[in-house]
Specification:
heterodimer; A: mainly beta; Immunoglobulin-like; five-stranded antiparallel beta sheet; four-stranded mixed beta sheet; 13 strands; B: alpha/beta; Glutaredoxin; six-stranded mixed beta sheet; 8 strands; 17% strand
Chain lengths: 145, 212
């Protein structure tokens, strides 16, 4: 289920919301940093990008290959939470967190307004229940100069 | 968000049992037909209004590729658990359900787990092996999710009586092991109204041979 730029999870029961992104200005041949801001409802967590258990679904931000190149995606430092269902602490995000992306504009990029599209996949739980994994669309408005 | 939908009264259960049986059985006391079809509710199924309804039909494969339907368990009390390998809270209940399977299977009880893992048996089988799960696991799909009202949260557990009616619905880990056990015992000891009142043939309600 995908919300138009940017809200996520659940059928009419969103537990993860994404802040609308500001326009990203980038010069051809240069790089620029983009920050995706997310916030979870209290009591819920999502698995980090490296949850430390093969069965858990990691959060993952991916981008299309153009018009920019996503050089690096940087996830925040996770919290290690001991939850009622886990024998060992698991690596999660709670509350507000940010995922960074460093974009690079090819020297041949067309100047002007463009969009960079991506997807955020995650799976949220609280102590008593889990919501199905979700993949939501992420879109950044670009000003390529 | 966890909720418990309590068992409704005997009158409503009887009414549902009669619906399940069909009116012709009531008047004529006809023997139960050999093969019964699951009853499809008139409107969209909602877990919030599921108690007393017939278990929605599905046809899902187990790990051996055998097709399994709710009607295969008619005559048994069934704990139907929708779960997934990525669901941490589901992991709390699995050992309880394994114990219930061991303790009550000879009394006409079965646990059936429906995994909602998108990655299928490749992830389910190792998990089942690792957890030493002793009850039947089926691979769920979008159709069964829709049939059961969307399954917005896991675990979602239904207790189903011997007549194939939903006795209670538990979304999330909403009650403890002892409460589950008490609810199962209550259903196992409940009078079998269809057997005694409607069809007059208790044996017709027993599960088919070969059903776990």
């Amino acid at each position: 289920m995908a919300w138009p730029c940017l809200q996520a999870q659940g059928s009419g029961n969103a537990v993860l919301s994404l802040a609308p992104s500001a326009r990203l200005t980038i010069h051809r041949g240069d790089t620029a940093e983009f920050t995706l801001k997310a916030e979870l409802q209290p009591g819920f967590h999502v698995n980090s990008n490296m949850p430390g258990d093969d069965y858990l679904i990691p959060i993952k931000l991916t981008w299309n290959k153009d018009p920019l190149e996503a050089e690096q995606v940087t996830y925040p430092k996770p919290q290690m939470e001991k939850l009622s269902f886990s024998t060992n602490p698991i690596s999660v995000y709670t509350g507000a967190f940010e995922i960074g992306t460093r974009f690079k504009a090819p020297p041949t990029a067309m100047p002007g307004m463009a969009f960079m599209n991506g997807k955020l996949r995650y799976q949220a739980c609280n102590n008593k229940e889990c919501l199905p994994p979700r993949t939501v669309d992420v879109r950044v408005t670009l000003d390529v100069q | 968000m966890s909720k418990i939908i309590p068992v409704i009264g005997v009158g409503a259960a009887l009414a549902c049992s009669l619906l399940w049986t069909g009116c012709s059985d009531i008047g004529g006391m006809k023997p139960a037909p050999k093969a019964r079809q699951e009853q499809k509710p008139a409107g969209p199924f909602s877990l919030n209004a599921a108690v007393g309804q017939a278990t929605p039909a599905f046809s899902l494969k187990d790990a051996n590729g055998q097709l399994v339907r709710p009607v295969d368990y008619k005559g048994k009390v069934v704990l139907l658990d929708f779960w997934a390998t990525w669901c941490g809270p589901c992991k709390i209940e699995i050992p309880w359900f394994m114990e219930f399977e061991r303790q009550f299977k000879d009394q006409g009880f079965a646990v059936v787990g429906v995994s909602m893992d998108e990655d299928g048996w490749n992830v389910i089988k190792p998990y089942v092996q690792n957890m030493k799960m002793n009850y039947r696991i089926l691979l769920g799909n979008d159709d069964v999710s829709t049939a059961y009202g969307g399954l917005d949260s896991l675990p979602t557990t239904l207790l189903i009586d011997r007549d194939g009616k939903i006795a209670s619905v538990h979304v999330g880990v909403s009650m403890g092991k002892e409460e589950f056990k008490n609810a199962i015992v209550q259903l196992l000891n409940a009078p079998r109204e269809r057997a005694s009142v409607a069809s007059g043939n208790g044996l017709a309600l027993l599960a088919s041979p070969g059903v776990r």
